[in-house]
Amino acid sequence: QSPSLITRLLRSAPITGLGSLTFSVFLLHAPIGQLFYKKAVATRLWGAPLRQNSFPLYLVTVFLASFLVNECVIKSDTVQRA
Questions:
Q1: Hey, how many other C-beta atoms are within 10 angstroms of the C-beta on 73?
Q2: What is the pTM of this model?
Q3: Burial 14-35 (b: 16+ CB within 10 A, else e)
């Protein structure tokens, strides 16, 4: 008997890849959000908090940073042996 459609979907490479990033996203989304939207921080960095239409840039930044942390830190041999 072959696996059900939902099982095949949840085992797919895009879904498992996204799942591997969730811990990094959880850790990084708030600090990166502070850089983009917290008035005191964003004003010092950019001159003003970024507008709501910059949300796609925020998402790309969070996922890129999460991917780098996942690949360079979480998957590192030192972390895996701990």
A1: 11
A2: 0.78
A3: eeeeeeebeebbeebbeebeeb
* Chain segment 15-40, per-residue pLDDT in tens: 998 999 999 999 999 999 999 989 99
Is residue 68 within 8 Å of residue 74, measured between CB atoms? no
**Token reading at 61:** 């930044």
Which tokens belong to 37?
């939207």
CA distance 71 to 77: 11
Asked if 15 and 9 count as a contact pair (C-beta separation under 8 A), the reply is yes
CA distance 59 to 48: 19
3-state helix, strand, coil in the chain (%, to 5): 80, 0, 20
CA atoms within 13 A on the CB side of 14: 1
Question: Can you tell me whether residue 3 is helix, strand or coil?
Answer: coil
